[in-house]
């Protein structure tokens, strides 16, 4: 793919994500759907209005109509597209630095475009085979505010009231427009942090990794809240702390929801990304279900292929009964419902989910060599671990599942010049051994290939 990565098109403004690109993507989408309506939303980044304007111009030039829903979180754009559009476009770079921006495209069901659809858009763009409407057939623009309708639909789906006290860290992102209002409608007592919209993300880095939000642990204890929730810039991601200030690992949270859905369906298929823990498999299999893994950013393809009742990658959750898109707001509502109905704190609810030892780290790597590096690491890892390997998965880089349920994953980032190294061990010692091996191999090959003439 020349433009699209694992989550749409992303990159630095002006050097990659330019108004010209946005214009051409708009023309390509209009050409692809040929007729109908495209729903357009944007996040709070400083460049988002500029790119939205260019994109809308491109769409209108092909004769399609546009519904602008303004500054909204990505899940709401997907929901609105499902309700009103033949396609949808979100101007966002999600958790990337504020100097970046991006474009995500959704089909009429609110699902991010499948790979074959993104390839078709790229073909239209690079061949410049755009449809062009005549002066009397240019599309129309309608502006709508749909936030209250979206909140009402989530409340109807969740169907639960609560009196929990919740700390929300909005990260200066678009979630500020939905999450506090949704939880207060549920009856929760809400304390907000970094809830002012600001495209510079002054409160913290946008990605809700532990190291970026660790301060929430002390705040949970000082404020005496039942849990804390953090979101990223476009609010499709969440991170959670329990009532003791403990960070809930992403895979534990996935396992919690996977178990819930497997219990409700007496089994069923669960789809998760390639970089997720075996603790998910353990709890799902106990309920008679089965877990399938797909490349990061391809949950929607997995749902389609395996008829999944739930799908997730770290921080992102899809609830197919509500909608076929990543929706953090439904996730938050259901999490509060689980805690309220269980009648015990989150720390107690997750106690019986297995504990493994996980580590994730990135190695910076020039774009032009990162796939070659991964290929070399793939060969070397298989050779060094051949006696321990139970399963080899090569759908996204390489994941080696070992006989003792430990595993190692090395994959190229689809959005940044980095290689991801993820390791899970059944013990701390095993985790450290595997991580040292994989990380050092990646670093070695990056150094060697970077220095060649």
Summed up:
The chain has 453 residues and is of the alpha/beta class. It contains 15 helices and 20 strands.
Category from helices, strands and their pairing: alpha/beta
Strand order in the sheet with the most strands: 1-5-4-2-3-6
Can you tell me the overall shape? globular
State the major sheet.
6 strands, mixed
Give the count of helical stretches.
15
Task: Report the average pLDDT across residues.
Answer: 95
**Strand elements, count:** 20
- Radius of gyration from the alpha-carbon trace, in angstroms: 22 Å
Strand content: 15-25%
List unreliable stretches of 5+ residues: none
Measured as a percent range, the helix fraction is 25-40%
Q: Report the end-to-end length measured between terminal Cα atoms.
A: 26 Å
Describe this structure in words.
This protein has 453 residues and is α/β, with parallel strands linked by helices. The chain contains 15 helices and 20 strands. Strand 7, helix 6 and strand 8 form a beta-alpha-beta unit. Helix 1 packs parallel to helix 2. It starts with 8 loop residues before the first strand and ends with a helix. The model has no long low-confidence stretch (mean pLDDT 95).
Defining traits:
453 residues, six-stranded mixed beta sheet, five-stranded mixed beta sheet, alpha/beta, 15 helices, 23% strand
